[in-house]
Amino acid sequence: MLDYGDLDLQKEEDEVEQFAMTSLGKLIFVDIHCRHPKSLSSDKPSVDTIDSLSLAFEDLFYMPFDIIENYSHTLRTLDISHNKFSRNLQFLGEFDNLTSLNLDHNNVDDYTVFPHMPKLQLLWLNHNNIEELYPFIKNLYESLPNLRYLCLMGNKAAPSYLNGGTFYDYLQYRLYVISWFPHLVHLDDRNVTTEQRQEARRLFKRPMLENLTEHAPLPECIKHLHNKITNMFSKPTLPCKLKPRGTNFIV
Description:
The protein is α/β, with parallel strands linked by helices. The protein has helices spanning 4-18, 24-28, 30-33, 65-71, 136-143, 167-180, 194-203, 208-213, 220-233, and strands spanning 52-54, 77-79, 100-102, 122-124, 149-151, 186-187, 190-191. 24% of the residues are buried.
């Protein structure tokens, strides 16, 4: 015999699923794309309760104003993968509480600069157009100093066996990135070990003034002078045993 209680339960589960992170993009763009036959009703969760949003595969190259206005103060997780974002990421500065950002499969390149986002802890940048680590990683650190999880796979700047890199190329890349982010616990597909962090510090020593700024705030005028000096002299060099061959590597 058909159990109507089970049918009601299934209906509730389906309604909840509609508001999962991977479906929110379709709900938000219902008026534009007509992808969802149902409209939002009063008994659905309000904007204030939404902290995760996916706009993946929406063919976006800019963030719609309505999204920023309605969700910028509540979102903690944002997925804008598989779009066309490149150097126009300043809108991210409006998302005050964002801790997780997925930018996989976009057009982020060496000259993309992120806004200052001290709360961001997880950033996915797989399969973009990043070819050189310097100064991209330096700028990334200045904008996102508290990153704990970072993924750059599928970029030319992240050498691996999959894109023609050698083991030494991969090791150089990994240690260099680790040297910039003191809170990083996971890079690409594996955890950051204590040994890797120690070796990163040994190979890529940071200027003394820069180390001090991580623990004690300095006047803006001194920071400005320090940044100028760093830009002139801090491009990293490698020991001979790790010096890479070929292109797309730090020299």
